[in-house]
Amino acid sequence: MNISILTASYPVDRLTYEEVAELAQTAGETDGLQYEQLLHLYASAEAGVSGFYVLAYDDDEDRLVAAASAIDEIGFHTFESSLVVHPLYRSIGVGTAIHEALEQALAVRQSAGTLMLAKEHAPYNEAFLQKCGYGYNFSEATFMTQSASLQETVAVTLRPYAPADFARVANLYEQAFGDTLEESEQLLEYNTAQQQTMIWVAEQQGEVVGTITTTIYEDELNITALAVEQTMRGQGIGSYIIALVKDEACKENVATITLDVESENEQAWSFYVKNGFEKVSQTNYFVKLG
């Protein structure tokens, strides 16, 4: 058996995208997990995204047998990485080989830091990553719900973000996420640069009271960056925003809505469960030790 390993920068071509998607589906069916988001398929074919794949091929079978993904989501030159190996190739060292190639590719790109991601109960989780010199850092739970038409008028309206909203939305980010204003502005700049991403501004009686960001990937809408004006929290505004996003997804014929929440954030867990979400999986994050 001859295994070849190569690197492909984002945006990847259609053939590579389809190969990675097929690998994610095959491994996911075996493991009972979803690997598409872990391998950043939603961003891999999008121009302007900083990231790459390390790909391992069985030359004899002309088959992609493993993929490692690395993406610089925010543009800080720090990467989130993950790897998936075809079920038939997990006992011959392919995982170790592709991880070594991933670390070499990150070094070439002078990565300022890397988080390794792994699905809970996945084959290449904590035990494997510990052998590679990583330690557990934190976890995020993925929640899911279904889109739904709005049945009644709510006290908040949603409109698309406009450049004039920059300072206000950055301030909302600063309030909600505990970042500095500069970090909040960088996050907003990143979100506005993504082609498939929509930033929404929530208004009540003409005043901006919140914001939320959505990204549609095939038949799924992903929510990020929900923030509500801190002086108006506890008034149901967040729930109104979620209801409006469910309605928007329904209009776009998107059935499923997902989001990620840090496992330790009990307040957010409670909020999303109250608004009809259920936990469907958990992703663990690991950092390089030493």
TrEMBL record:
Q: Name one Pfam family in it.
A: Acetyltransf_1
Alphabetical UniProt keywords: Acyltransferase, Transferase
Quote one Gene Ontology molecular function term.
Answer: acyltransferase activity, transferring groups other than amino-acyl groups
Say which domain of life the source belongs to. Answer: Bacteria
Q: Where is the N-acetyltransferase domain?
A: 10-163, 156-290
InterPro entries, per database record = Acyl_CoA_acyltransferase, Bact_Acetyltransf, GNAT_dom
Q: What is this protein called?
A: N-acetyltransferase domain-containing protein
Upper taxonomic classification of the species? Bacteria, Bacillati, Bacillota, Bacilli, Bacillales
